[in-house]
Specification:
Blueprint: E1 2-8, H1 14-21, E2 27-33, E3 46-48, H2 56-61, H3 70-77, H4 86-98, H5 108-121, E4 126-131, H6 135-147, E5 151-155, H7 169-182, E6 188-191, H8 194-203, E7 209-211, E8 232-237, H9 247-258, E9 267-272, H10 277-285, E10 292-294, H11 300-308, E11 312-316, H12 328-336, E12 340-343, H13 350-357, E13 360-363, H14 366-383, H15 392-395, H16 400-416
Parallel strand pairs: 1-2, 1-4, 2-3, 4-5, 5-6, 6-7, 8-9, 8-11, 9-10, 11-12, 12-13
Helix pairs in contact: 1-16, 5-6, 9-14
Length: 417
């Protein structure tokens, strides 16, 4: 069996899913990563390295908790609660310098050393580097230069073309120059959607580029179906980003209750993830505090249980976001096999995926959301539950088994060359 070295600092669900199913297609993965908080799955071969936090000096100087988000702590210390503030601007400017090319650059020397030792001792046939952070690609470039083996650069988020790019145009010029230089020796580029693949191809002319979506682990599919809540329960799991707009959903829900279409005693909306003060303020603004609750972070298995027992799953897309990638949450929801309500401006690829798989509905206005909620609530009242109508065959195209299969096609092609 051929071996592939996978360089990844953050795993998300993509790396475990890929690693789990690559052996089915003739490739044995070895993961090169930074120190892990939790012990990895015993079936994975993992090489952990040391790591140096580039912000450790500043955290000690200002007595910040090293395990919590720096920006959030600083804003809290200054009493800043708004989404955009002068403090945010200053922190972004400082981050442009300190975190170039990213905040995890302190991992690079340790990873290069460990990767070098590994490649000397074993017959590794190819490398996959996965970002973010982009430091993963800088590590892969050094190893590629020395050992001349095929290298696939995988982008879960784009680099200088990132839709959520938060730095200045000057910093972007530096990032773009470094990106072009770093990826000049990569044999193939992969990202999570076709629009992003097209953007990569435009920037990196002549590079072979593939679109391979994120997915879900088929072993986590809700089979047999879990029992549902007795209430009309709507669940959101994961981080609510500041660019997510929940106001349309809240407005639609509040109108349906005010017009007595919905009985508030039968409705429950649950958010599982890091609790956000600004979200609580929005909940209060729409007079929904007795219905909508934030329950904070929970273990992954608990989140899956909450998804599976829900009548409806909520997906908040970014307002104004360009047609680009899919939220990883969307694939978790596909595995839960419960109807999905996604909101946004109608320009997200989520709508296309939901139409294809019949796993849910996409809405872009308060009136559309309200209409969908009323229809599903009526179904809940008449049938005792919201009926799931997903197309299993089409949903299975987004499993991590399929993701691994697509990656092995690339690896096989490159190693045969």
């Amino acid at each position: 069996m051929k071996k592939v070295l996978i360089i990844a600092y953050y795993w998300g669900t993509r790396i475990p899913g890929l690693v789990k199913y690559l052996p089915e297609f003739g490739w044995q993965p070895v993961i090169l990563t930074a120190p892990l908080i939790e012990k990895p799955d015993a079936q994975f071969r993992v090489v952990e390295t040391s790591y140096r936090d580039v912000l450790s000096f500043w955290k000690r100087l200002f007595r910040l908790n090293p395990d919590e988000d720096v920006r959030r702590q600083v804003k809290k210390r200054f009493g800043v609660t708004s989404k955009n503030s002068l403090v945010d601007f200053i922190l972004t400017c400082v981050g442009e310098v300190v975190n170039y090319p990213d905040g995890d650059k302190g991992w690079k020397p340790f990873a290069v050393k460990a990767g070098d030792e590994l490649l000397q001792q074993e017959n590794i046939d190819a490398i996959i580097s996965s970002s973010s952070p982009v430091t993963s690609h800088l590590i892969a470039k050094e190893l590629k230069a020395k050992y001349k083996i095929p290298w696939v650069a995988d982008f879960r988020d784009l680099w200088s073309q990132n839709h959520n790019y938060s730095y200045s145009p000057i910093r972007k010029l530096f990032d773009r120059r470094l990106e072009l230089k770093t990826l000049s020796t990569a044999d193939a580029l992969v990202t999570v959607s076709q629009p992003w693949a097209d953007k990569l191809s435009t920037l990196h002319k002549g590079k072979v580029t593939y679109a391979i979506t994120n997915g879900f682990d088929p072993d986590t599919v809700n089979i047999p179906p879990a029992g549902l809540t007795t209430k009309f329960t709507i669940t959101y799991t994961g981080l609510v980003h500041q660019r997510h707009d929940a106001s349309k959903f809240f407005a639609a829900l509040q109108e349906s209750i005010s017009e007595e279409i919905m009985n508030p005693n039968e409705v429950e909306v649950r958010f599982y993830g890091s609790a956000m003060e600004w979200l609580d303020r929005e909940i209060e603004q729409y007079r929904l505090s007795n219905i909508v609750k934030q329950y904070g972070r929970v273990p992954v298995q608990v989140a899956r249980e909450k998804q599976r027992e829900s009548q409806l799953l909520l997906q908040l897309s970014w307002e104004g976001r360009e047609k680009a990638g899919y939220s990883g949450k969307l694939f978790e929801y596909l595995a839960a096999q419960r109807p999905i309500l996604a909101t946004g401006l109608g320009n997200d690829m989520t709508e296309e995926l939901l139409d294809e798989t019949r796993a849910g509905l996409y809405s872009s206005t308060v009136e559309e959301i309200k209409s969908i909620l009323n229809e599903l609530y009526s179904e809940y009242k008449n049938m005792g539950e919201v009926i799931y109508k997903g197309d299993e065959a089409k949903i299975n195209r987004y499993s991590y088994r399929e993701t691994a299969n697509k990656f092995t096609d690339i690896l096989d092609h490159l190693t045969q060359k």
